[in-house]
Amino acid sequence: MKNLKSRLKKPQPSKKVQLNIKIPSNQTPVPLEMDMGDTVLHLKEKIHEIEPVPVKRLVLQSNGAELQDHRSLHDCELKYNSEINVIVKPSPTGSGSIGGSAGFKKLRVIVLTRCGTKRIPIEVSPSDNVEVLRKELHILQHQMQFQLPQEGYFFIHKQDVMDDDRSFRWHRVKQGDIIEIFNGRVTSGS
User: Fold this and answer.
1) Where's the Ubiquitin-like domain (predicted)?
2) What CATH number corresponds to the domain at position 133?
């Protein structure tokens, strides 16, 4: 018992670690030095200083696993130069889907901007219509500093044009799928 008390009283020496933060708006990872005793929430706050996205919309992943806010970096078994993927959840815009989508697992899709210059990870619900993606991109373009084509654009998923009035499920969009932005407008060919 005495040994346990002495271990509890001694503060753990702070151990610094450099993490490579993969932010959607940057092609190259951003190095960030943190203390191993810091929480994931504190890491999100540091990322918020770099990327002006609300902390509650940030999801952090390492080796494919989501990092929980209350856990320390040490508990998450992060090491020097660990890669942290930052995913931005869509803002709660109240898309008006009747019955809600609480029972559905969110899809994380990657949106490629023109010429593939940026890869933007976004979470959507399978039951959401594609127009939700358009609204989310309009919000994110200022925060993440990318341009949407002013003359109009449409989405392509697996070489098929996506209809804004159809759901992601209807388009057979799966977890991790890539959706590309193309310049122009889609017209019905009659």
Assistant:
1) 17-89
2) 3.10.20.90
